[in-house]
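Lecture notes, unit on protein representations.

Consider one protein chain, 150 amino acids long.
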Amino acid sequence: MTHPISNPITPASHSVALTRILAVGSLLGLIILGLAWELVLAPLRPGGSWLALKVLPLCIPLAGLLKNRMYTYRWVSLLVWLYFTEGAVRAYSDKVPGNYLAMGEVFLCLTLFTACALHVRLRLKNATHTASLSDNATPSGAPTHAKPAA
């Protein structure tokens, strides 16, 4: 029987990997949708618009998500609400096909937020669980901290 700490593949790590894939996929989807929407599918002006630059802030956290940085997952879950708001407004005010693209943006934003929130929650839970297992792995008579000399 293997010790839980020495076993790198656990059901929790599968969940963390799934949330990472969802977060990166939905972020890439938002970038691609934003570019396609404003340049090809339903631009505000024929031939494309400068509004396509709105995806540039989404490119910044992509590197952090790919490097699995917890801080990036946290602040992306806040940034995504700006794009959600734009999608909600344009879903109501734009004409077809723009309103359908806006609904897609809202869906991708909700997916990204959920994936980021779950990712942070699962990683913190795993860290707490691993820390408690390592505390329990010390021998019962061994001190866990060195006492200062008197």
